[in-house]
Write a structure and sequence with these properties.
The protein is mainly alpha-helical. It has a domain at 36-173: Serine Threonine Protein Phosphatase 5, Tetratricopeptide repeat, CATH 1.25.40. 37% of the residues lie in helices and 7% in strands. The protein has helices at residues 40-54, 63-70, 84-90, 99-121, 129-154, 176-193, 208-221, 225-232, 289-293, 305-308, 323-328, 390-403, 407-418, 438-453, 459-468, 493-498; strands at residues 75-77, 157-158, 173-174, 259-263, 301-303, 329-330, 335-336, 341-342, 354-356, 359-361, 364-365, 385-389. The strands form six sheets. A two-stranded antiparallel ribbon has the order 1-5. Strands 2-3 form a two-stranded antiparallel sheet. Helix 1 packs antiparallel against helix 4 (99-121), helix 2 crosses helix 4 and helix 12 (390-403) runs antiparallel to helix 14. The radius of gyration is 23 Å and the shape is globular. The two termini are 40 Å apart. The model is unreliable at 1-23 (pLDDT under 50). It comes from Adhaeribacter arboris. Belongs to the SusD family. InterPro entries: SusD-like_N, SusD_RagB_dom, TPR-like_helical_dom_sf.
Length: 514
């Protein structure tokens, strides 16, 4: 459940003026950027407002996970009820006026603007110096995360490193390599300035481990496996895999030993959900993810056939059925609501069906749904989103070691995942996945990524990175992948319309073929 409570409305205060001389006065009680952000406590409230945007409907509570999911080969439509803007992304027909990707763009630039405000004012504020430094470190981590996401979603994007204070202070699109320079610089500063752990009311705030994790991923996205390995190895011994796989996707086991960074949510008895920006101090802090994918609710997205058939089962020649298939996916006959009810095909919403091992079947996502403890699918939930977890770090380390010629070390990392207490899959090599060469080890990494992290955000970035490097062929089943277009989304048309400088630095205002 949510541990960070926000008071962000104070950041929206504006000066009011009028062209008449007798009304051209400033309200002495209003808050402005010149009069606020002067103390360590005010900086903390400003940082809270960054988190408010991060977990809002614009980002992690809905549109962020949707944009990742719809670009991932792990998902298929649950039926004709999927809204048109979402179907666009899923089917590879995204247009510049798409509201889902546009929300993500706006959300992350709100994060960036608020982070810039803290970074600029932090050194000038009064009060506890340690607290001031911590707030700036948090802001730099959150700004880095925002730019990391933006550059992977959209490619070249405008770079703002100071608060925008004028209506015409537009920036042109900046090359990805220059965006990454800011990301790396911010993450190194955050790594040095953030604490290794959080507790109590600070659970959910960024840590040095989160900065280290994202630093490693940023190097990998740029093809620097040596430096990525150096960073990711710093996480080994500081985090451990949970004994139960589903502890990573349930409300009662949040902030566990495997969690590196998660965005907190709070379920509400009135099923409240904030469809706006999340800024109000009394806004609902829940996520609508459960309702979107729940089998007895909207069921807008379901696991793709490609993902379902990736799991090892005796039917496809494996020695054992991978338990993670049954932890990730609800099948007809599965029990729910504390094992008091049985799920049937008829109970599952939408017409979308699947094929597993050649047999038609109607299945749904179990991961990140609250059906394990309730029979009500039509409600937002308080399950935190695990943005970063240690299992992914092990997968990334395996990839680094394999790229650097250390196949034995790579396989060892993969086998740690298969040794999870309630998974216990046979070690590599297996009959289905030999690991005698670099290529074979990479195939095992691709497989293990799917079955360990199926349906989780960020896998799409990895898969697209592998496609770009010609290591795998496009896995998308709903459309033909166009390498001259589909590595990135279109720049939102609203941004093109209102930013006359967008294409001024020699990079077109819009991505190719959109």
């Amino acid at each position: 459940m949510r541990k960070i409570y926000v008071s962000a409305c104070l950041l929206g205060a504006l000066l009011l003026s009028n062209c008449h001389d007798d009304l051209d006065k400033v309200n002495p009680n209003s808050l402005t950027s010149e009069s606020y952000f002067k103390t360590a406590n005010e900086l903390e409230l400003a940082v809270n407002s960054i988190y408010a945007t991060a977990h809002s409907n614009l980002l992690v509570a809905r549109e962020w996970f949707f944009t990742h999911s719809l670009r991932s080969g792990d998902f298929a439509t649950g039926g004709a009820q999927l809204e048109a803007p979402r179907a666009q992304i899923l089917n590879g027909n995204t247009t510049p006026d798409n509201g889902v990707s546009g929300s993500v763009w706006n959300g992350f630039y709100t994060v960036i603007h608020r982070a810039n405000t803290v970074i600029l004012n932090g050194p000038l504020a009064s009060g506890d110096a340690t607290k001031k430094d911590l707030m700036v470190a948090e802001a730099r981590f959150l700004r880095a995360w925002a730019y990391y996401e933006l550059v992977n979603f959209f490619g070249a994007v405008p770079l703002y490193t100071e608060p925008v204070t004028a209506v015409d202070a537009f920036q042109a699109r900046t090359k990805p390599e220059d965006i990454y320079k800011v990301v790396l610089e911010d993450l190194k500063a955050a790594q040095a300035g953030l604490p290794p752990t959080r507790s109590g009311g600070d659970l959910g705030r960024a840590t040095s481990g989160a900065a280290t994790f994202l630093l490693g991923k940023s190097y990998m996205q740029q093809g620097d496996y040596t430096t990525a390995k150096t960073e990711l190895e710093k996480l080994v011994g500081k985090y451990t895999l949970t004994a139960k796989y589903n502890d990573n996707f349930r409300e009662e086991t949040e902030y566990n030993s495997e969690s590196i960074w998660e965005i907190g949510f709070q379920g509400r008895s009135d099923n409240g959900y904030n469809w706006g920006s999340g800024d109000g101090p009394n806004e609902a802090q829940s996520s609508v993810r459960n309702q979107e994918i729940n089998p007895i609710s909207w069921r807008n997205l379901i696991p793709s056939d490609k993902l379902l058939n990736e799991y090892e089962t005796p039917e496809n020649g494996a020695a054992k059925r991978d338990p993670r298939l049954d932890y990730t996916v609800f099948f007809p006959g599965d029990k729910f609501n504390n094992d008091t009810k049985v799920l049937t095909e008829a109970l599952q919403g939408g017409a979308g069906t699947s094929t597993l091992n050649g047999q038609p079947i109607k299945v749904s996502w179990e991961k990140y749904t609250n059906l394990y403890k309730t029979d009500s699918g039509f409600n937002p939930a308080g399950i935190n989103t695990r943005v970063m977890r240690y299992a992914e770090a092990l997968l990334l380390l395996a990839e680094c070691e394999n790229e650097l010629g250390n196949q034995t070390a790579a396989v060892s990392y993969l086998n740690q995942l298969r040794d999870r207490a309630d998974v216990m899959m046979p070690h590599y090599p297996t009959a289905k996945f030999p690991v005698g060469s670099k290529g074979e080890v990479f195939a095992a990494i691709v497989h293990e990524s799917a079955v360990e992290r199926g349906g989780e955000e960020g896998r799409d970035f990895d898969v697209l990175r592998w496609i770009k490097a010609s290591k795998i062929t496009p896995p998308f089943t709903t459309y033909s992948f166009n390498p001259n277009r589909d590595f990135v989304l279109p720049v939102p048309q609203d941004e093109i319309n209102r930013n006359p400088q967008l294409g001024a630095a020699g990079i077109s205002a819009q991505n190719p073929n959109y």
